[in-house]
Write a structure and sequence with these properties.
The chain has about 650 residues and is α+β, with helices and mostly antiparallel strands. Helix content is about 30%, strand content about 20%. β4 and β5 form a beta hairpin. The longest helix has 21 residues. It is globular.
Length: about 650
């Protein structure tokens, strides 16, 4: 039983008479503690006189085995190559501090050792920040009033200035303490924190649109992105960006991708599915040509296909020689302008004609193989046999298995000739699901054996480190996207083998993914662009440790969480699935959406929302990204065609089981 007792330094978190954490008092203040439930306490501090600053500090005694600031820092980060919050303090020795809304739980810090895990949180929208750093006695958790971010703020690929907020003097301050003894003997026990946060901060959320309307708008955006090239290639471009020179959104002409930001394979399959339900022959013809042409133009002798097909002349730009004067933002799309800024001075691998050579990454190859397997099955329903689609998907699987290393891992990416490009990252698990499909299609045990070895390798990384890595291709770091395919892999292995260990592992993966999930609604001022667009942060997910923005990628996890609920009966998995869906389906244009002086194409949606003090070149913090990619639309359509009962998408989240009364 966890309790809090009075001490000479303040108070202590006690279990069976032993002190595990110190709650540090301050002169001129009285601390009281109100039990919320076992191990959870509301910490209230009252000062004798009003003050315009306060630090509420809790110390985990001794060395932690794992620390986390959800969606900001996982054991101090440091995996990867991009700017991020590394360690517990900046290079000048100043401990990092983060605004409450930068993390997914208000001002939340977490640490654990072999005996206990502790977390300190705050009341949402209460003008506060947090910090977590080592001191001589152990790990110090801090809730800070007023809001601050120091000694500098992380932006997209660059550092910004520090922030110091203000507040009117007051006497009353509030925080929340959670302490959970280790009864399992395992590491990375943040599930208890996430379960509590869901029931404490979470709330009902309505579906922004009906599934029927979302389907109509998503198909409309597919139509908008479809394009045919002079050489005969056709497909769905990667998205649309704002062009200041024409004062309009335009699709990214001549740029295609198989299955990451661009979703040509998935959108083509959406067209086939639409044909099966409506009889629209034009869509069927477009889809078949898109798939056929990707095979024709993307085939590589090594056995895979190129995952990007790009006819845009930017691939010939010599970024090493560019100067700032070469960037004319009125001739470039807004996102391409940022790309130019980031690529300035960078040397690229090029072919004999000077064209930049793309990498063939595991994410695109894996989802591409999934897409061709699905296309083959969909067309069978239409009475059309396309054995080349099956052959292409199997060829990608064989390509991966031939290059699987002794440990079981695949690479992050390969060159066009099949040689290794980049090795590390959980991203390789994107190939496991199609390899399992190959096993189901052929019965060849080499596919099952290879998939099991790969899954074991990537899952062991999560067990060892407490995080997964490098799923987002523009973010070589700890991230969320790499856990999504790993979750699908675990569920698929359970379906094939019936082995319950895969359910246990799926839940472990799902809890990690939930560290990236936003547990509350951030309140923004009326003049803020996010407030004007009506965006609610609750249920969204952050991207990665360097890319601290909210996006819709959890659309890929809706059905996985629903499947977990069906298998385990744990109601919270279903609740979270609904929240993922409702959050990711807000702020979609109906063709008349006018925001920031811009009218948006029907069915389009921002890739991300910069919900905190994090921005990129040309787009400041507390704004939508203004980049309208293909992938949210494609993922929405996948949910709608993979789940027959559309009432699930319409019902919204009406209640949370075990909701804590406040």
């Amino acid at each position: 039983m966890v309790s809090i007792k009075k001490t000479d330094y303040g108070h202590a978190v006690v279990v069976n008479g032993r002190e595990y954490a110190k709650i540090l008092g301050v002169d001129g203040a009285t601390d009281t503690f109100e039990p919320i439930e076992d191990g959870a306490f509301k910490w209230m501090r009252h000062t004798d006189v009003p003050t315009d600053h306060m630090r509420m500090e809790m110390l985990l005694i001794g060395e932690p085995t794992f620390t986390m600031v959800p969606a900001i820092s996982y054991n101090g980060n440091g995996w990867g190559s991009l700017a991020e919050y590394i360690g517990d303090r900046d290079t000048d020795g100043t401990p990092w501090s983060w605004a409450s809304h930068r993390g997914t739980i208000p001002s939340c810090t977490y640490s654990e050792n072999d005996e206990i895990s502790v977390a300190l949180m705050a009341k949402e929208n209460d003008n506060n920040a947090c910090s977590l750093y080592k001191v001589d006695e152990g790990e110090l958790h801090v809730v800070i009033f007023p809001e601050e971010e120091k000694p500098r703020t992380l932006q997209r690929h660059f550092w910004g200035d520090p922030f110091q907020g203000t507040m009117e003097p007051k006497c009353d301050f509030e925080a929340i303490i959670l302490a959970v003894p280790n009864t399992t003997g395992k590491k990375h026990r943040y599930a208890s924190l996430l379960d509590f946060a869901w029931r404490y901060y979470g709330h009902a959320i309505a579906a922004p649109m009906t599934a029927k309307e979302l389907y109509r708008l998503s198909i409309a955006y597919c139509r908008y992105l479809y394009q045919e090239e002079e050489n005969g290639f056709n497909g769905f471009t990667v998205g649309a960006q704002w062009y200041p020179g024409t004062h309009s959104y335009k699709k990214c002409e001549h740029r295609y991708e198989l299955g990451w930001v661009g979703q040509s394979a998935s959108m083509a399959n959406a067209y086939i599915w639409d044909y099966l339900n409506t009889g629209d022959k034009e869509k069927l013809d477009i889809a078949i040509r898109a798939h056929d042409n990707w095979i024709k133009f993307g085939h590589r002798d090594a056995g895979h296909i190129s995952v990007k097909i790009d006819y845009d002349p930017w691939r010939y730009v010599d970024f090493e020689k560019l100067t700032d004067e070469d960037f004319n933002r009125y001739k470039l799309g807004e996102c391409m302008f940022e790309t130019y800024k980031n690529f300035k001075g960078k040397k690229f691998r090029r072919d004999e004609n000077g064209m930049i050579l793309f990498q063939n990454d595991a994410c695109n190859l894996g989802t591409g193989a999934d897409g061709f397997f699905e296309a083959y099955d969909l067309l069978k329903k239409a009475g059309i046999d396309k054995p080349e689609y099956l052959k292409t998907a199997l060829s990608i699987c064989d390509f991966a298995l031939e290059r699987q290393d002794e440990e079981g891992s695949f690479a992050k990416s390969w060159n066009d000739d099949g040689t290794l490009r980049t090795k590390k990252g959980t991203i390789g698990c994107f190939l496991v699901l199609p390899i399992l499909t190959a096993y189901k299609k052929t019965g060849d045990k080499k596919y099952l054996d290879g998939a099991v070895r790969a899954f074991d390798f990537y899952y062991q990384g999560l067990e060892r480190d407490g995080f997964t890595t490098a799923g987002a291709l523009d973010t070589y770091s700890i991230d969320k996207e790499s856990s999504s395919p790993l979750l699908r892999d675990a569920l698929a292995l359970y379906e094939i083998t019936g082995d319950k260990k895969y359910v246990e592992r799926a839940e472990k993966i799902a809890w990690y993914l939930c560290t990236w999930m936003m547990y509350y609604t951030v309140e923004y001022p009326d003049d803020c662009l996010i407030k004007k667009m009506g965006y609610d942060t609750f249920g969204s997910t952050s991207v990665s440790t360097p890319h601290q923005a909210m996006d819709q990628y959890a659309l890929r996890d809706v059905l996985s969480f629903l499947k977990l609920y069906e298998i385990t009966g744990f109601k919270q998995w279903r609740e979270r699935a609904v929240a993922f869906w409702c959050n990711a389906c807000q702020c979609i244009s109906d063709g008349t959406m006018y925001l920031n002086g811009r009218i948006r194409p029907a069915g389009s949606q921002d890739e991300a929302v910069f919900h905190t003090r994090w921005g990129r070149y040309g787009v400041p913090a507390f704004s939508p990204s203004q980049w309208l990619p293909a992938w949210p639309c494609a993922f929405r359509l996948e949910n709608l065609r993979f789940h027959d009962d559309w009432s699930f998408f319409d019902e919204g989240l009406t209640e949370i089981e075990g909701k804590i009364k406040r």
